[in-house]
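#lab-general

N.A. 3:47 PM
ok so I finally got the sequence cleaned up, no stray characters, all 224 residues accounted for. can someone with queue access submit it? mine expired

B.Y. 3:52 PM
send it over

N.A. 3:53 PM
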Amino acid sequence: MMSHEVASFERALAPLPAEIGVFDLLGGRLRRADLADIELVLLGGSGAYSAAVGGPWLSSALDSLRAVHASGVPAFASCWGFQAMAAAMGGRVVQDRSRAEVGTHRVFVTAEGRRDPVFGSLPPSFAAQMGHEDLVEELPPRATLLASSDAVVNQAYRFEDAPVYCTQFHPELDSEGLLARLSTYPRYAAEVAGASFQEIVAQLEDTPAASRLVRLFAENFVGR
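B.Y. 4:20 PM
back already:
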């Protein structure tokens, strides 16, 4: 799904021009030199690689995310990126299928989010695409909560000491994009959500407000 991920972020950034290169966190640590001349870091989903369950690859990946945080390069992280960045910076990530969210769900902007230069441009609540069983149980230090859902308190946060924003939901995906992801793993999606694949697909909605989020972030932080 790597090419789909890249295409999804390109769509989310439009009409801003984007030339997106890929760094595979499974292939080794990101170095400061890898971030030279990079205007924006995008961290997306991961398929079967859980930041809660981990594996031999996780330590190196978290070191890479700490390097992103320390670099000062603006970064936007969704889903796995949201969870892994929290784990890298001292938060706590758990796997809990009782709070899994798959499909289109409603997100509510917090009071801090309404004062935020990015989230403050969105409605007080909006629909967003989701697909997760891992979640951030505790935010890392120096993180400000920006949005919640009925099932999961920590749906979005920003760091106070770095230009890094993270969302549990997928602002880079529209309903067609999420359908493509779910169609790749239909049995898993239904197993996690506790509903049939057809039931999940039937409740998908367009998410115009969430779809603006990555572009709003880039407009606020890139080129400063």
